[in-house]
Amino acid sequence: MTKVYYNGDVNDYVLSNKKVAVIGYGSQGHAHAQNLRESGVDVIVGLRQGKSWEQAKQDGLPVFSVSEASEQADVVMVLLPDEYQPKVYKEEIEPALKPGNALVFAHGFNVHFSQIVPPSYVDVFLVAPKGPGHLVRRTYREGAGVPALFAVEQDVTGNAKEIALAYAKGIGSARAGVLETTFQEETETDLFGEQAVLCGGLTSLVKAGFETLVEAGYQPEVAYFECLHELKLIVDLMYEDGMAGMRYSISDTAQWGDFVSGPRVVNDQVKAEMKEVLKDIQTGKFAKGWILENQANRPEFNAINKRENEHQIEVVGRKLREMMPFVKQREAKDVVVSNAEN
Ligand SMILES: NC(=O)C1=CN([C@@H]2O[C@H](COP(=O)(O)OP(=O)(O)OC[C@H]3O[C@@H](n4cnc5c(N)ncnc54)[C@H](OP(=O)(O)O)[C@@H]3O)[C@@H](O)[C@H]2O)C=CC1
Ligand SMILES: CC[C@](O)(C(C)=O)C(=O)O
Ligand SMILES: [Mg+2]
Ligand SMILES: [Mg+2]
C-alpha cells in the first residue's frame, strides 16, 4: 500500500527558519496563510491592492505586493487562480526568486502544461489539499484536516520533500494523511475528478434528476429536496463509512433500487464518455481550450455561468435555503451568485 504520511512522520524544523509567502488570499490562500500562522510558521501574504488585501490585513497578516512578498520569502506558495498565474509569475514572482528558494503550487496545471517554467535553481513542489479551501480552514480550526497530495518536481536543496511535508503539516493536512504523487498524476486526476465526478458529473446528475421529476409534473420543491438537499446527507454517510455505511442506513428498498437502477443511469456509455474526458485531459486538449477561453475573456464561461445560475433548481433552492439558515456554509463567502461574473 502507498505510504501515507501523518504528523508524526514530519520534521517541521525544516520550516522553522523559513519565511513563507502565500500569494493570493482566496479559497486556498486564506486557509493556508492562517493555518500556517497558527502552526507557528512565519507567514506573509502577497497580493494586489483590493478586496483580499483588506481581508488579509483584517485577519492580522502582514501583506505586501506580490513582488515584495516573493522577494522576502524563502518559500513562495502560488495560490492565485490557475488562469492568472503565468502572467503574475513571469512579471512579479520569477524576478524575485533566489537560489535555494522553494516555488510551490497547490495544483500542477501550469507547470505540467508548461505555462510556468521555473528556473533550475529553486526547489519546485506542490502541496495540493484534496478539498475546498474553506474546508481546509474550517477543519483545521476543528482540530482536523483535509488530506493532501505532495509532489517534488525539482529538488536543488536536497530538502524539498521534507519542506513539502512540513508545509502539509502546517496547513493541517498531515492530521488527515498526505500522499506522494507527481505533477502529472496530481494534475490529471484532479482535473478528471472535478470534471467527471465531483463537480461536472455531480451537477449534471442532480440537474437531470430534478428536470426528470419536474417535467413529469412533480413539485419543484419536492424535486429539489430529493435530488439536491438530501445529497449531502447521503454523501456524509459515504464520507464517514464508505458505500457500505451509507447502504446500512438507507432502507432495503433504496438499496435494491441503488443496485438495479444506478447502473442503468451511470451505464457503459457514461463510462466510455468519462474515458474521452480523461483522454482530453491527458493530451492537453482540455488545458488548451481553457487557456484560449481565458485569452478571449471567457465568453463561453460567462454565458454558461449565467444560464446555470438561472436554472430552476437554483431559483427554487435559493428560496428554500432562505428558510433553512442553518444550512449556509459557515465561512464560504459570496456563494449566492446573481450575475455571470463570478
Ligand atoms: N479552490 C480550491 O479549493 C482549490 C484550489 N486549488 C488550487 O489552488 C490555487 C488557488 O485557487 P483558489 O484558491 O481557488 O483561487 P481563488 O480564485 O480563490 O484566488 C483568488 C485570490 O487571488 C487573488 N488574485 C487574483 N488575481 C490576482 C493578481 N493578478 N494579482 C494578485 N492577486 C490576484 C485574488 O485577489 P483579489 O481579491 O485582489 O481579486 C484572491 O485573493 C489554484 O492553483 C487551484 O487550482 C487546489 C485545491 C483546491
Ligand atoms: C473539486 C474542485 C477542486 O479540484 C478542489 C476543491 O479540490 C478545485 O480545483 O477547486
Ligand atoms: Mg481538487
Ligand atoms: Mg482542481
UniProtKB/TrEMBL annotation:
Transmembrane segments: none annotated. The active site is at 107. Substrate binds at residue 251. Mg(2+) 1 binds at residues 190, 194. It comes from the Bacteria. The keyword tRNA-binding does not apply. Pathway: Amino-acid biosynthesis; L-isoleucine biosynthesis; L-isoleucine from 2-oxobutanoate: step 2/4; Amino-acid biosynthesis; L-valine biosynthesis; L-valine from pyruvate: step 2/4. Its cofactor is Mg(2+). InterPro entries: 6-PGluconate_DH-like_C_sf, KARI, KARI_C, KARI_N, KARI_prok, NAD(P)-bd_dom_sf. Pfam families: KARI_C, KARI_N. NADP(+) binds at residues 25-28, 48, 52, 133. GO terms for cellular component: cytosol. One of its GO terms (biological process) is isoleucine biosynthetic process. It is an enzyme of class 1 (oxidoreductase). Its EC number is 1.1.1.86. Keywords: Amino-acid biosynthesis, Branched-chain amino acid biosynthesis, Magnesium, Metal-binding, NADP, Oxidoreductase. Involved in the biosynthesis of branched-chain amino acids (BCAA). Catalyzes an alkyl-migration followed by a ketol-acid reduction of (S)-2-acetolactate (S2AL) to yield (R)-2,3-dihydroxy-isovalerate. In the isomerase reaction, S2AL is rearranged via a Mg-dependent methyl migration to produce 3-hydroxy-3-methyl-2-ketobutyrate (HMKB). In the reductase reaction, this 2-ketoacid undergoes a metal-dependent reduction by NADPH to yield (R)-2,3-dihydroxy-isovalerate. HAMAP family: IlvC. This is Ketol-acid reductoisomerase (NADP(+)). It comes from Fredinandcohnia quinoae.
